[in-house]
């Protein structure tokens, strides 16, 4: 089973961005997603952003991951 996790864009670089997942921050390849802005939410799978997400949907999904103990 593959799992993609929503994260919030904190900083944007050329083809990568710093993305926040709860208390964790990682540099993620964002070259597949166009028109990103700081504060956008992206769906991340295997170190790559694969799509943008609406903030509400991202927050709900993150709550599910927290409830399951997958995020702090």
From TrEMBL:
Coiled coil: none
One of the GO biological process terms: protein maturation
Stored Pfam families: HupF_HypC (PF01455)
SUPFAM superfamilies, per database record: HupF/HypC-like
UniProt GO molecular function: carbon dioxide binding; iron ion binding
Domain of life: Bacteria
Xref: PROSITE patterns: HUPF_HYPC
InterPro entries per record: Hydgase_assmbl_chp_CS, Hydrogenase_HupF/HypC
NCBIfam families: hypC_hupF
Family, similarity comment: Belongs to the HupF/HypC family.
Protein name listed in UniProt: Hydrogenase maturation protein HypC
Organism: Clostridium gasigenes
